[in-house]
């Protein structure tokens, strides 16, 4: 399901009220206050998609602050996590006594069941993900220690997450993205990877420890997708577990090691094919970059996964951007 709203064309006196109503309906009930000069109109645009149980929005607006208050929570407290990735401008997220100052590329997580505030001091643009808390494989008590914590967009696992989210923002209107539940699941898994890197699991129950280990393994796979020789044995050895146990972990998650590795490689190829900065790279070069060195295999696997050949996928992406 698509959503789009703009305050352009609305009488100035009604613009901010419309914005407050829009963000409360799209996310959870929020209170808002405008920044800037009193009596001036408010520019705001909100557009997004529902990818299964994950909502993805891009919000661009003038300076303002939104607050999730205890009063609003007492009326209804749906159990969601939200993630804000700063695309342009700056923001300050506050929750649980912590404060995260976000610059472009940075992101932070927050919980809709507890009060928070998000302040934008100037014109800004933000990508917002909202998803059920149980989609994260990490214990909620441990995730609570990471709300309103800044994850830098330029380095490490958080840099991978940031890059993926930026690509998602660029393609939010692409028909190929609409309704992609698998894409949403992968994005949340990547977020779990970044969170797991910040946590200490010494006192986590066995079941949660397995989930955390799987997240770390996925992080390792993500960092080694370019290695065409990467095997289940390599992955197991890097985490000091048997190959049999590795296969069991992925089986419990409803997939296989090779299937997960293949899917992530194909998805990264898809991102490159849709990237205007890489339009001069051949499909074979892009495939080899992500460990898929056999061009004929890449073509078959890509069409099976996405319903389009790599060349068709690239052409449709170009046509969509030209609209």
Compact summary:
With 323 residues, this protein is α+β, with helices and mostly antiparallel strands. Helices cover 43% and strands 21% of the residues. The protein is built from twelve helices and eleven strands.
Write the layout of secondary structure elements.
Blueprint: E1 2-6, H1 12-26, E2 31-34, E3 44-51, E4 54-61, E5 64-68, H2 70-75, E6 80-88, E7 91-95, E8 98-102, E9 107-111, E10 116-120, E11 124-132, H3 140-143, H4 156-170, H5 181-196, H6 206-223, H7 232-238, H8 243-252, H9 257-273, H10 283-289, H11 295-306, H12 310-322
Antiparallel strand pairs: 1-3, 2-5, 3-4, 4-11, 5-10, 6-9, 6-11, 7-8, 7-10
CATH architecture of the largest domain: Sandwich
How much strand?
Answer: 15-25%
Query: Which word captures the global form?
Result: globular
Per the CATH scheme, the topology name of the largest domain is: Jelly Rolls
Number of domains: 2
Mean pLDDT, rounded to whole units? 86
* C-alpha end-to-end distance: 20 Å
- The DSSP helix count reads 12
* Major sheet strand order: 1-3-4-11-6-9
Report the CATH superfamily of the largest domain: Jelly Rolls
Structural features:
single chain, Jelly Rolls, 6-stranded antiparallel β-sheet, 5-stranded antiparallel β-sheet, 11 strands, 43% helix, transcription
Note down, in words, how this protein is organized.
The chain has 2 domains: 2-196, Jelly Rolls, CATH 2.60.120.10; 224-322, Homeodomain-like (Arc Repressor Mutant, subunit A, Orthogonal Bundle), CATH 1.10.10.60. β3 and β4 (54-61) form a beta hairpin. With 323 residues, it is an alpha+beta fold. Mean pLDDT is 86; it is low at 202-206. It has a 6-stranded antiparallel sheet, sandwiched between helices. The chain has helices at residues 12-26, 70-75, 140-143, 156-170, 181-196, 206-223, 232-238, 243-252, 257-273, 283-289, 295-306, 310-322; strands at residues 2-6, 31-34, 44-51, 54-61, 64-68, 80-88, 91-95, 98-102, 107-111, 116-120, 124-132. α9 crosses α11. Keywords: DNA-binding, Transcription, Transcription regulation. GO terms for molecular function: DNA-binding transcription factor activity; sequence-specific DNA binding.
């Amino acid at each position: 399901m698509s959503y789009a709203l703009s305050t352009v064309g609305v009488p100035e006196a009604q613009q901010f009220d419309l914005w407050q109503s829009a963000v409360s309906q799209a996310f959870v009930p929020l209170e808002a206050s405008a920044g800037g000069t009193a009596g001036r109109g408010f520019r705001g645009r909100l557009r997004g998609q529902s990818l299964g149980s994950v909502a993805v929005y891009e919000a661009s607006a003038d300076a303002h602050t939104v607050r999730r208050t205890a009063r609003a929570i007492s009326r209804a407290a749906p159990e969601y996590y939200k993630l804000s990735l700063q695309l342009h401008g700056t923001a300050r997220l506050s929750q649980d006594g912590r404060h995260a100052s976000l610059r472009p590329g940075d992101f932070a997580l927050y919980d809709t069941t507890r009060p928070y505030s998000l302040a934008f001091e100037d014109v800004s643009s933000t990508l917002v993900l909202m998803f059920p808390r149980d989609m994260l494989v990490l214990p909620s008590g441990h995730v609570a220690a990471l709300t309103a914590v800044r994850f830098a967009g330029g380095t490490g696992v958080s840099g991978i997450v940031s890059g993926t989210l930026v690509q998602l923002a660029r393609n939010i209107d692409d028909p190929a993205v609409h309704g992609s539940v698998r894409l949403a699941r992968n994005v949340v898994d990547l977020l779990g990877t970044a969170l797991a890197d910040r946590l200490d699991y010494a006192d986590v129950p066995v079941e949660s420890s397995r989930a955390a280990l799987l997240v770390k393994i996925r992080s390792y796979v993500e960092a080694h997708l370019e290695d065409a020789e990467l095997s289940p044995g390599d992955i197991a050895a890097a985490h000091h577990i048997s190959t049999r146990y590795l296969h069991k972990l992925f089986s419990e998650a409803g997939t296989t090691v090779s299937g997960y590795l293949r899917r992530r490689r194909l998805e990264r190829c898809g991102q490159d094919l849709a990237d205007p900065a890489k339009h001069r790279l051949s499909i074979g070069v892009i495939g080899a970059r992500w460990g898929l060195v056999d061009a004929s295999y890449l073509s078959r696997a890509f069409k099976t996964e996405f319903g389009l050949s790599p060349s068709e996928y690239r052409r449709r992406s170009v046509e969509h951007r030209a609209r």
